[in-house]
Design goal:
alpha+beta; Glutaredoxin; Glutathione S-transferase Yfyf (Class Pi), Chain A, domain 2; 2 domains; 4 strands; 49% helix; 8% strand; globular; binds glutathione
């Protein structure tokens, strides 16, 4: 069985838990909540598996491991209904997943983290908060334009891109973002939540 190291409160980790739930894949879960220098991610054993010291991380029985949430989504998603067979739709799915890491995560997720985690207090300067708000609103507006046109981000099918972007969009209010007033995003959030097999952020294996 695989072992998933994940942070219960984090969207990057939640994406992986959400896909594994949809695919009914069993795993042993090891929680790695942020705890400064005492974090599990700072141990030499963990750093040998992932030198970046970040979760999520999947450890395979073979001794191999895999990090980066979107690479993990790709690994488990390949060959399933969550990856479109059509080449252009598949590329659009990746387009949104790169957007998530390159634009959305660095603004929407970071502004939430700055408020949620006491150790990020030094990032709460008025200028930094204003920049993150501006960047995050631009990211959400870009999603809104797409979701006014299609049911899901890469088109009419539910794909890895939706699982990926749901992670930090559904909890964006933690960072002071208003997603509910964007009707395309609000309807999409509900659509993703209503997918059979969906689990919430605080769901962990063994917890019904
Ligand atoms: N690009 C990475 C980002 C992973 C990341 O930033 N993980 C954070 C939680 S969201 C983490 O592990 N922080 C713990 C630490 O830095 O000790 C991914 O998508 O997996």
């Amino acid at each position: 069985m695989i072992t998933l190291f994940s942070m219960p409160s984090s969207g990057n980790s939640y994406k992986v838990r959400l896909l594994l739930a949809h695919l009914n894949i069993d795993y042993t879960h090891i929680a790695a909540e942020y705890d400064g220098d005492a974090s599990l991610t700072r141990t030499s054993e963990f750093l040998a598996k992932n030198p970046t010291g970040k979760v999520p991380l999947v450890a395979f029985e073979s001794g191999e491991s895999l990090s980066e949430s979107n690479a993990i989504l790709h690994y488990f998603g390949e060959g399933t209904r969550f990856v479109p067979s059509d080449r252009l739709s598949r590329a659009k799915m990746y387009q949104w997943m790169f957007f998530e890491q390159n634009f959305h995560e660095g603004t929407v997720a970071v502004r939430s983290a700055v408020y949620v985690y006491p150790q990020r207090e030094m990032d709460r300067s008025p200028q930094r908060l204003a920049d993150l708000l501006d960047g995050g609103n631009r990211a959400l507006d870009i999603m809104e334009v797409q979701l006014q046109q299609t049911a899901y981000l890469a088109g009419e099918e539910f794909t890895l891109a939706d699982i990926c972007l749901y992670g930090y969009t559904h909890s964006a209010s933690r960072g002071g973002f208003d997603v509910e007033s964007r009707s395309g995003i609000a309807a999409w959030l509900k659509r993703v939540r209503d997918e059979p097999g969906h689990v919430a952020l605080d769901w962990l294996p063994g917890r019904e």
